[in-house]
Amino acid sequence: MAFTGLYSTLFAAPDMKEAQRFYKDWGLRKVKATPTHSIFETKIGSRVELKSPKAKNLPPAAGPDMHFREMVWGVSSKKHLAEIKRELTKDREIIEDKDGTLHCIDPNGLGVGFRVWKPKTRIDGARSKINSFDMQERVDEISTFYKDAHPIRMGHIGFILPDLKAAEKFYKDRLGFWLSDRYGKAALFLRCAAKSQHHNLFMIWSEAGNIKYHHTAFEVRDIHEVFGGGVAFDKKGWATEVGPGRHPISSAYFWYFKAPCGGAIEYFTDSDYLTENWKPHNYRNNLFSEWHLPDGIKQVPDGEIRPSVSAAGKH
Ligand SMILES: [Fe+2]
């Protein structure tokens, strides 16, 4: 029984044209883009789906002004899908599509689905070559400079929730997600398989009882693609939420931008990879970042080459 990752996210798009431009600029492949329905895809085939807020078959919003409507998790086999159906039918309504995709509502009111999904593996996902003191991977060769990002996959999704205990029971105890780390009763980092990136589902408790979509994170090939992609996305007019920076929890480099359908969107790379042997930590202090820039970085225009006029010279 294994999950293969976060397959899709579904949003109601109040401004479909703006949302289409956003995901295209983000570097996803356009599969479909009509005034009422759009699909954008990562390299491995995980996708963002946008529907008109008036669409008939849209799952309900879990909270006020929430455009997020559903996340669908990939599972490895029909057998696993049947096990999920058997487990969840015990206490909630399950809607089954013709292709076998299951849809239901989780304990906090979030739309969640499951379908058999095998991510594409023959993709361009290789990092650029690195030179270090002990190893030269790049000899007589200039490094890669990314003009924009092309995300490989959706790595994780995050929410602010009123009932974190119920969420832990649902995703960890009933569906078999693994606990990676936690902040006491304040936040949980879960992964959907024993062997996985540090987290695929991140949930923060709202003591005030609010529910909000927080962000979705897209993995890119390396740190240079986080920087290059972020600079290009900024240049296209999208606003930084925070970053670039580095998370102590997961070790990943990040850069978050504000998203038109609510919450944020993140480029990330170099996450910790965990197995059954990982021992979850219970962190007491907020470890959002080791360092970060609050408001992005800008592209530097090419400079003119001039003879140095100062005695010391400048480079
Ligand atoms: Fe994240």
What does this structure look like?
This protein is of the alpha+beta class and about 325 residues long. The protein has a domain at about 5-120: Roll (2,3-Dihydroxybiphenyl 1,2-Dioxygenase, domain 1), CATH 3.10.180.10. Helices cover about 15% and strands about 35% of the residues. It has four helices and 22 strands. The strands form four sheets. The chain has a ten-stranded mixed sheet, with helices on one face. It has an eight-stranded mixed sheet with strand order 2-3-4-1-5-8-7-6. The protein has a two-stranded antiparallel sheet with strand order 9-10. The longest helix is centred in the C-terminal third of the chain and has 13 residues, at about 225-235. The mean pLDDT is about 95. The chain binds fe (ii) ion (FE2). Fe (ii) ion (FE2) binds near residues 215 and 217.
The CATH level-2 architecture of the domain at 3-120 is identified as Roll
**Which blocks of ≥5 consecutive residues have pLDDT under 50?**
none
**What summary fits the major beta sheet?**
10 strands, mixed
CATH superfamily of the domain at 3-120: 2,3-Dihydroxybiphenyl 1,2-Dioxygenase, domain 1
CATH class of the domain at 3-120: Alpha Beta
Quickly give the structural class.
Answer: alpha+beta
